[in-house]
Write a structure and sequence with these properties.
Helix content: 25-40%
Number of helices: 10
Oligomer: single chain
Largest sheet: 13 strands, mixed
Distance between the termini: 51 Å
Order of helices and strands: HHHHHHHHEEEEEEEEEEEEEEHEEHEE
Structural class: alpha+beta
Radius of gyration: 21 Å
C-alpha cells in the first residue's frame, strides 16, 4: 500500500499549530508565524484547511482526558503523541497519519528538532553530548544493546561517551557511521550524507556491505552509488557549532542552502549564478551580513521584498 504524500506546507501548518496551541505564544513567535503565513499562498491554504478540521472541534480537545488535554494544549508536546491524539479524536484523517510515515512526516515527528536559526546542545542518557544544527531533526534509540541516532534532516555533532559494550551509530537514509569514544559530525543532504571525523576514528558503511574506515580529519560522502572519500582535512565543516560557515571553493548554491536553515522567508537563487565559486568564512546568525558580503565579492544582485522573499540573481 502506497503512503500518502504530505506536502511541505501541510507539515509546516501542523508544526505551527503545535507551537501556537502549546501555551501562550511569544510576540516573536507570533511574528514568525505571520511571516510564514504571508510568504506563500500554499501556507495560507494549508493553514485554512487545517483550521477547518480543528476549529469546530477545539472544545472537544479541551474536554479530552486530562493527560491528552495537557499534551495538546500546554507544555511543549511530543509530536508523535499529539498527532496520535488528534487522530484519536477524529481531528486528523487516517491518510494524514499515514503520510507521517513518509520522509517529511518523519522529520515532523522526530524526537528532537531545531527551528530556523536554532542550535541546540544536550547530554544524552548515556553521557554523550549531542548538538543539532539549525533546522535539523533526529530520532533517538538508546537501549541496553545499542545506541542509535537516526538523522532525519540537517546536521548533528556528537561527542560519544565510551561504552565498548554498546556501539554508537548515526544512521541516515544513505548509510551509517559507527564509532566508539569519538567525536564526529554527520550531515544529511538531498542526494547524500556527509560524515566528518573530528576525533579518533569512525567506520562508515552501507547496506550493500561496502564500508570505509576514516581517521581524524577525514570525511566521506555516503551516496546511492557507494562511499566516496573526500579530499583534505574536512573538520572546518563543523564550524557551524560556532555560528560560522566556512567555505573552501564551493558553489554558491551550497552556501545558500546552508543559509536557509538560519533565515525566515523564502530565499531563491537564479540558475545562472548557482555554480559561482565561493571561498570565505561567513556568519550564520547574521544572514543579511553574509548576503551583503557575497554581493560585494560576486557579480550578484540581491532583491529583498520585506522579510518574506529574497531573490538572488546575476548583476546587470
Amino acid at each position: 500500500m502506497s503512503e500518502a504524500p504530505l506536502g511541505r506546507a501541510a507539515e509546516e501548518a501542523i508544526a505551527w499549530m503545535v507551537q501556537l496551541r502549546a501555551g501562550t505564544p511569544s510576540v516573536r513567535q507570533k511574528a514568525r508565524f505571520e511571516a510564514w503565513l504571508a510568504s506563500d499562498t500554499a501556507h495560507q491554504q494549508a493553514w485554512a484547511q487545517l483550521q477547518r478540521g480543528l476549529g469546530g472541534h477545539y472544545e472537544r480537545v479541551r474536554q479530552a482526558p486530562g493527560h491528552l488535554r495537557d499534551s495538546l494544549l500546554h507544555s511543549e508536546p511530543n509530536r508523535r503523541d499529539l498527532l496520535r491524539g488528534l487522530v484519536g479524536l477524529g481531528l486528523l484523517g487516517g491518510s494524514l497519519w499515514l503520510a507521517a510515515r513518509s520522509d517529511p512526516g518523519r522529520v515532523l515527528l522526530a524526537d528532537l528538532r531545531t527551528g530556523r536559526g536554532e542550535r541546540r546542545t544536550l547530554t544524552l542518557s548515556d553521557g554523550s553530548q549531542l548538538t543539532l544544527n539549525a533546522d535539523s531533526a533526529v530520532d533517538l534509540d538508546l537501549r541496553a544493546q545499542h545506541r542509535l541516532l537516526h538523522l532525519r534532516q540537517g546536521a548533528l555533532l556528537v561527542q560519544v561517551a565510551a561504552d565498548p559494550a554498546r556501539p554508537f551509530v548515526v544512521r541516515t537514509s544513505h548509510g551509517e557511521a559507527r564509532a566508539l569514544g569519538t567525536r564526529l559530525m554527520v550531515e544529511r543532504q538531498a542526494e547524500s550524507s556527509r560524515v566528518v571525523v573530528l576525533q579518533h576514528s569512525v567506520r562508515v558503511s552501507q547496506p550493500t556491505g561496502h564500508h570505509l574506515d576514516l581517521q581524524e580529519g577525514q570525511a566521506a560522502a555516503l551516496q546511492p552509488t557507494g562511499i566516496r572519500r573526500l579530499a583534505g582535512d574536512q573538520r572546518y565543516r563543523a564550524d557551524w557549532l560556532q555560528g560560522q560557515l566556512s567555505v573552501l571553493d564551493e558553489p554558491l548554491e551550497t552556501v545558500i542552502d546552508a543559509l536557509r536553515a538560519y533565515r525566515s522567508g523564502l530565499l531563491r537563487l537564479a540558475p545562472q549564478v548557482r555554480q559561482l565559486r565561493v571561498q570565505g568564512v561567513f556568519p550564520l546568525d547574521d544572514s543579511d551580513r553574509t548576503l551583503a558580503a557575497l554581493a560585494e565579492t560576486l557579480p550578484l544582485r540581491i532583491e529583498r521584498y520585506g522579510p518574506w522573499l529574497t531573490l538572488i540573481g546575476p548583476r546587470g
